[in-house]
Specification:
The protein has 255 residues and is an alpha+beta fold. It is 31% helix and 20% strand. The protein folds into two domains: 5-189, C8orf32 fold (Roll); 195-254, no CATH class. Strand 1 (73-74), helix 4 and strand 2 (97-98) form a beta-alpha-beta unit.
Length: 255
C-alpha cells in the first residue's frame, strides 16, 4: 500500500485476533525467551555505564542507548517468523548487528540488567497512513523502538545519529502499541507535530570596519523532528567547517 493511501482509499484488513490484548499475549509469548538477560548482557551493560554514577538513572539510560546505536549496525535478516520475532539478545550482542526490534530488545535486556523498566513498542510510521483501531493485528506495524516509562523516553535504536528524546518523539509516528515486554498492551494514536515543536533560527551580526570590510558573526540553532538529517550532515567532525560554509552560501543565495 502506497504512502497515506489508507487514509483516502478503501482497504481490506483481516485478522484472527479479537482484541489488542490478544495481540499482546501472542507477542509476549513470541519474544519473552529472546529477552532473557545473560551474563554477557550484564557484563556489557556494566561496561556501558562504568563511568556513570548509579544514582543518575537518566545518564545510565543514555549510556546504554549510545552503546546500542553506535556499537551495533542496522542489518535486517527478516526471514519467516523473524519478521516479527527478534533474535535472542545474546545473539544480537555477539553479532553486533540487528534490525529495529533486535536493537530495541538488546536495549531492553541491558536496561533490565541495570534494574530499569522498559517496554518494547511497535509503531506504524506516519508515511503508511492512519487506519481504524479494529481489527487488532500485528500486520499494521512496521517499526519497533523502546519506551522507558519512568522517564517518558522513546529510544529508536536505528537512529543514524545517537539522540535521546522525550515522549514528544511520538509525534513523528501515527500509531503505536506499547508493552511488547509485558502482557498488557496499550494502543495510542499520536498527534502530529505542532509548529512550536520545530524551530530553525539564524542570527547574523555584521560590523563594518574603517577599511570598508565587514566582520560577520552567524549563529544558528534548530530543533524538531527534522534535525536528525541536520545532525547527520554535520556528524563528520573533519567536514563540519566545509559543510557549514556550503549551508551559509546557499542561505546567502536564497536571500
Amino acid at each position: 500500500m502506497d504512502a497515506r493511501y489508507s487514509e483516502v482509499l478503501a482497504y481490506v484488513h483481516v485478522s484472527t485476533y479479537k482484541t489488542w490484548d490478544d495481540v499482546g499475549r501472542f507477542y509476549w509469548g513470541l519474544v519473552k525467551d529472546q529477552l532473557r538477560v545473560t551474563d554477557d548482557i550484564r557484563a556489557v551493560a556494566q561496561e556501558a555505564v562504568k563511568d556513570v554514577p548509579e544514582d543518575d538513572e537518566a545518564a545510565r539510560i543514555r549510556a546504554v542507548y549510545d552503546f546500542v546505536v553506535s556499537r551495533t549496525r542496522y542489518v535486517a535478516l527478516e526471514f519467516g517468523i523473524n519478521s516479527f520475532k527478534p533474535y535472542p539478545v545474546e545473539t544480537i550482542l555477539a553479532r553486533r548487528f540487528g534490525d529495529c526490534k533486535d536493537k530495541a530488545s538488546l536495549m531492553h535486556a541491558m536496561l533490565e540488567s541495570l534494574g530499569i523498566d522498559s517496554r518494547l513498542t511497535l509503531l506504524r510510521m506516519k508515511r503508511l497512513g492512519g487506519i481504524d483501531g479494529a481489527p487488532a493485528s500485528l500486520a499494521v506495524f512496521n517499526h519497533a523502538i523502546l519506551y522507558v516509562p519512568g522517564h517518558k523516553l522513546f529510544l529508536d535504536g536505528t537512529a543514524r545519529v545517537p539522540r535521546v528524546r522525550r515522549a514528544a518523539w511520538r509525534r513523528s509516528r501515527r500509531r503505536s502499541a506499547g508493552g511488547g515486554a509485558r502482557r498488557r498492551v496499550e494502543v495510542l494514536p499520536h498527534p502530529d507535530a505542532i509548529p512550536a515543536d520545530n524551530l530553525d533560527e539564524t542570527s547574523i551580526a555584521a560590523k563594518l570596519l574603517p577599511d570598508g570590510s565587514a566582520k560577520v558573526q552567524v549563529k544558528a540553532s534548530a530543533r524538531g523532528s527534522w534535525t536528525a538529517e541536520l545532525r547527520r550532515v554535520f556528524e563528520p567532525a573533519d567536514e563540519r567547517r566545509a559543510r557549514a560554509e556550503e549551508h551559509l552560501a546557499r542561505a546567502a543565495f536564497r536571500t
